[in-house]
Amino acid sequence: MELKKFVSSIDYDVKLAKYDIFGSIAHTKMLAKCKIIPQSDAKKIINGLNSILKDFESGKIKFTGEDIHTSIETELKKRTGDVAGKMHTARSRNDQVLLAERLYLKDEIKIIVEKIDKAISVIKKVARKNLSVIMPGFTHLQNAQPVLFSHWFLSYGWMLKRDRERFLDCYKRVDVMPLGSAAFAGTEFPINRDFVAKELGFSKISESSVDTVSDRDFLIEFLFDCSLLSMHLSRFAEEIIIWSSQQFGFIKLSEQFTTGSSIMPQKKNPDFAELVRGKTGRIYGNLVSLLTVMKGLPLSYNRDMQEDKEPLFDSVETIKNMLDVSSGMINTVKINSEKMLSSCENGFIFATDIADYLTSKRMPFRTAHNIVGKIVNYCSKNKKSFNNLSIVEWKKFSAKFEKSVFDVLDFRKSVEKRKSNGGTSLSSVKQQLKKL
Ligand code: ARG
User: Is the pTM of this model over 0.90?
Assistant: First the structure.
């Protein structure tokens, strides 16, 4: 292998080109303003940087230096001559790389938050459209209690809302201007860091030059936020995969989000959902990767830190794609409300309702729970369901049972009774829909 290639990051940090140029323009303006370099030199440098940006964006130049920072400076030297060398006064690549990364990530967090908002809005749309559809709620993937589909589905909206808050909170730690830390000890030149912060739209400057160039917390935090978000999307995907199986048949994915099999002509596989689930692996990997890179580093900058970029870029691209695919899939999904309702018939889904029935007749809940357990056993043994027990049979288990017990065996009524805040009744779900 070529030794130069081993230390090079240009293949991927070229992604930071635009941000590196913005940073250098702001830095150069500051150098001139503080009379560290002459205005006329600054002008030449800034014009040069702008022309590089233009040519880069139209695909006219390809950078080939060790990293994007040196490549841009080399290109500037070609265009402006020795004056280019003044640009690097009072800074180091150590603070320069952080400036570019922070600018990049601020933009990307905004895009990610917009995509989360989009996902929340399609979840709400589907919930609203199927507001009163009833499905079996599960624990342990077994029928547990009837619930509104909208209630179940909106849970993912709440997860995403927390993700949104987490990214916005992380943004505060990203939004800190590092330049002026130089190699790690600051600089002897009379720079104005606040000016650079203002130029570039940062809300504050970093406080310690040593900490600044040593710190990758903001990236690790971001990678964690991506991990949690991807875990949520993965669980959602898992649900979609199960629900679209023949055994469940709760939903039908739009053709766009399924693929056929190369051998079985009847197949419509949920590959998109599976890949949302699968890509979660690399997102976790990226977090662990950077945590591991950082764990043994002495202060301040060490070249190990260059390894922060690939995990970062990969998580940014992957999470954006996962959000797009998830939103598209949700937006076009068809809900099979009959199948959901009929699936409530399986299992003794009214068991809790019956226990609650006895409890409201002043029986301790534990006793009621016990009695209903016995009824379930009796039904299983005699191949019966709650629906076809006679009142005589009910009374055998407790004298508290009256004919009104038959009213309990109604999905809609079961759902409607649960009017507690955050519960599954229609009014509670409408309430949470409003809050979300
Ligand atoms: N490409 C390097 C990185 O990403 C830039 C900083 C280089 N600094 C140094 N002292 N070699 O970390």
Answer: yes
